[in-house]
Amino acid sequence: MPIPLPSPTAWVKSKLLALQEYSLLAGRAFRSLLTPPIYWGDLFQQMDLIGVGSLPIVVLTGFFTGCVLALQAATALQQFGAVSKTGNLVALSMVKELGPVLTGLMVSGRNASGMASELGSMRVTEQIDAMRALGVDPVRKLVAPRILATVFMLFWLSILSMCMGILGGGLVAVFLLGLDGHAYFTSTYSALVWADLWQGLTKPVFFGFIISSIGCYFGMQTKGGTQGVGRATTEAVVASSILIIVSDFILTRFLIGILGR
Amino acid sequence: MPSIQETALKHGLSPDAPVVAFEGVSIGFEGNEVLRNVSFTVMPGETRILLGPAGGGKSVLLKLVDGLLKPDSGRIFVFGEEVTAMPERELFKLRRRIGMVFQESALFDSINVEDNVAYRLNEEGVAPEEAHRRVVEALEFVELGHAIEKFPSELSGGMRRRVSIARAIITGPDLILYDSPTGGLDPITSTTIIALVAKQRDVSQTTSLLITHRLQDAFTLATHYYNQKEQQLEPLPKGTLEENTKFLVLNEGRVVFDGTTLELTHTEDPWIREYLA
Fold first, then answer.
1. Which residues from B are below 8 Å from A125, CB to CB?
2. Does the distance separating the beta carbons of B95 and A125 come in below 8 Å?
3. Which terminus of chain A has a lower count of CB atoms within 10 Å, N or C?
4. Which of residues 13-52 of A touch B (CB under 8 A)?
5. Residues of B in contact with A126 (CB under 8 A)
6. Exposed (0-12), middle (13-18) or buried (19+): which is B73, by Cβ within 10 Å?
7. Closest residue of A to B169, CA-based?
């Protein structure tokens, strides 16, 4: 039996409805952060889970990305006799682009999936309804702390990733490329200006919001038992990763426009 | 047995006003109409038993009472307030007067029995000592005092249902909604749960709506009372019925019967007669 093709109108309507539901959830979560009660216990617990829990993957990713970047940069710069500029290239790449984006993607893989599966399981076992029936707002209790915790912790994780990348690049520069350590770190320091830091520190705030709001949205919309939880988890990771990449382009263009570099 | 007036006063309700009132309520999901033009009322102190085939919209009806779902059309009043016109924020206040026992218990699996039962008290900022005392009292009511430190995953299906009942009654609600409290349980455990429902009905005179697929549970509630002295369920004298226990039968989203036990057993409706047989 042939599978019927979905009507284009129905498809567009379903996507618009999903966008509306997502916007309402994000709006309600944001409003919950401005009015009491705020679940501080849940907030700190999420900060620990998201921030401290993601430390190993962020450290490793940042460090080895810096290492690879130094190796690749040195090969390319050698053609122009500018190997000493390796530090500049590693620093600018890590701070402006790779630090925030790679940290966002790693945290998305770990936490957007975790949020979607946790909230999705609660949804299909009626725990979310039970919470509402007990007079507790699940958006305030479950979604708002996850969003705030992710935005806050991703900011610091990105800084850590940038530092680890510069450190990794430095070790490769000194021990594999035979560059002077002092010269490398001086060049990284001198390459960066405030506009670069602003760019690197603005992105994690947006990426943190994307990861957590998308993870929570797919979790809260879960239907169809354990199969539905699996589907929600996959969709959350795919959607948040794509949105990070797309928003990175838009943010970069916007920030270059404002900051001038 | 206390009168409707006494029961209503005990729960701060008007004896003449219904606790729950449905007016032409309809709701559908993805093109399928689940409830069609449903209207009925539940008076103070009444235990309304919802019967009907699976998929007939009984659980949806219970969620509508608690404001967990919104109908497509019609109006729903609970304690005289129009649930269908209330924003979610106001519904949270109203739900504090309602206890709900979910079909699969819906206990929070990451916290223990004590925290599950005390959930609402903790949210209301009740002092820990007071909350603990009330949890112990509620768990003793459902005869599960020994399970206070266990996690939901360590409990049997029947024990989970009893914890769910304890969680629903801990704040002394004015209305309790039981969604298939005996569903999927063995006959002995089902009898224990029904005894607890009768105990809550006869000790606290709480208005309730109860879904069941087991006719024997429904008729046990209609023909038995809870003897507080002997702490057990006992049959009412021959020829008498629990007058506050009434029935609502749903079929394919429509109300096909609304009345007393006697009216139900003497109905001429062929579908209901077949269903009851």
1. 104, 106, 109
2. no
3. N
4. none
5. 102-104, 106
6. middle
7. A134
Question: How many beta-carbon contacts under 8 Å exist across A and B?
Answer: 49
Only one residue has tokens 């429509």, namely B254
The pairing of beta strand B207-211 with beta strand B47-51: parallel
Instruction: Please give the structure tokens belonging to residue A184.
Output: 């490398």
Residue A123 to chain B, least CA–CA distance (Å): 10
Cα B167 versus chain centre, distance = 13
* A135/B109 CB distance under 8 A: no
Q: Could you tell me if B171 and B96 are in contact, meaning their C-beta atoms sit under 8 angstroms apart?
A: yes
Distances in whole angstroms, Cα of residue A196 to Cα of each of A62, A70, A153, A206, B56: 18, 19, 20, 16, 62
A33 domain-assigned: no
pLDDT, tens only, A32-77: 999 989 999 999 999 999 999 999 999 999 999 999 999 999 999 9
**Residue in B89, B95, B104 closest to A125 by CB:** B104
Task: State the total domains in chain A.
Answer: 1
Terminal alpha carbon distance of chain B = 31
Say yes or no: B120 contacts chain A, CB-CB below 8 A: yes
Domain B4-97+173-276 in CATH 3.40.910.10: no
Query: Has residue B1 got a pLDDT over 60?
Result: no
Chain A residues touching residue B120 (CB < 8 angstroms): 134-135
Distance from CA of B241 to the nearest CA of A (A): 32
Q: Where are the domains of chain B?
A: 4-97+173-276
Are B106 and A137 in contact (CB < 8 Å)? no
Q: Are B71 and B35 in contact (CB under 8 A)?
A: yes
Encode A13-48: b = buried (16+ Cβ within 10 Å), e = exposed: eeeeeeeeebeebbeebbebeeeeeebeebbeebbe
Pull the structure tokens for residue A146.
């996850």
Tell me, yes or no, if B271 comes closer than 8 A to chain A by beta carbon: no
- Length of chain A equals 261
Residue A229 has pLDDT above 90, yes or no: yes
- State yes or no: ipTM above 0.85: yes
pLDDT at B277: 82
Q: Residue A194: which domain range?
A: 39-259
- The verdict on A126 touching B (C-beta cutoff 8 Å) is yes
pLDDT on residue A216 = 97
pLDDT digits (tens, 9 = 90+) for B195-244: 989 988 988 889 999 999 888 899 999 999 888 888 888 889 887 888 88
Residue A199 neighbours by CB under 8 Å, 6+ apart: A95, A96, A252, A255, A256, A259
What pTM does this model have?
Answer: 0.88
CA distance B163 to B145: 10
Q: Is the peptide bond before A100 cis (omega within 30 degrees of 0)?
A: no
CB of A136 within 8 Å of any CB in chain B?
yes
Domain assignment present for A23: no
Interface contact flag, A133 B104, Cβ < 8 Å: no
Of all residues in chain A, the percent with pLDDT exceeding 90 is 87
CA distance A137 to B167: 17
